[in-house]
Write a structure and sequence with these properties.
rod-shaped; 69% helix
Length: 169
């Protein structure tokens, strides 16, 4: 049995849904509200793939077998839970937050944040380059000072043949 692995692009698409807490290349962690919502909607007669689709999760990306297994696990987990109408209404409000318009707004916000982060990283990179250049100049100045010191020591020693000046490595 081979497990479906998600590309970076697929994982990013999955993370745009409010029903997803986190993803890796092999795992999806769903929000608690979504697990309950899926069970409620399934009890009302909705198909699992339609439930996932309703919160912006493409069954082709998630995988039909994964959806089937999740629903079986969640139905078992919530078998003894009788959801009140209030619980169902509250969870349905969460699901309404995943309409395509809101997802696009979320993607736009994420894009703006990424642009800000990119600008900040570029400032840090430029500053780091400046520091490295300054360190390079300082290193060259220190090497020149060391060479001058060696020449000065050699000149002093040449003027005083009896004087012993220790050479440090």
């Amino acid at each position: 049995m081979t497990r479906k692995t998600f590309t970076d692009e697929e994982a990013a698409i999955l993370r745009t849904s409010p029903a997803i807490l986190r993803t890796t290349s092999r795992r999806i962690t769903y929000a608690a509200w979504f697990r309950r919502y899926a069970v409620i909607m399934n009890r009302r007669g909705d198909r699992p793939s339609d439930i996932f689709r309703s919160v912006g999760l493409d069954p082709k990306i998630v995988g039909h077998k994964r959806i089937e297994r999740c629903m079986n696990r969640w139905r078992t987990d919530f078998a003894d839970v009788d959801f009140s109408q209030r619980d169902a209404d509250r969870l349905l409000e969460h699901a309404d937050e995943s309409d395509p318009g809101r997802i696009l707004e979320s993607l736009d916000r994420m894009n703006d944040q990424l642009e800000c982060i990119t600008a900040c990283v570029n400032v840090v990179i430029d500053h780091t380059r400046d520091v490295i250049d300054s360190m390079d100049i300082t290193c060259k100045a220190m090497m020149a000072a060391k060479q001058q010191s060696v020449r000065l020591r050699d000149a002093i020693q040449a003027d005083r043949p009896g004087a012993i000046i220790e050479r440090k490595p």
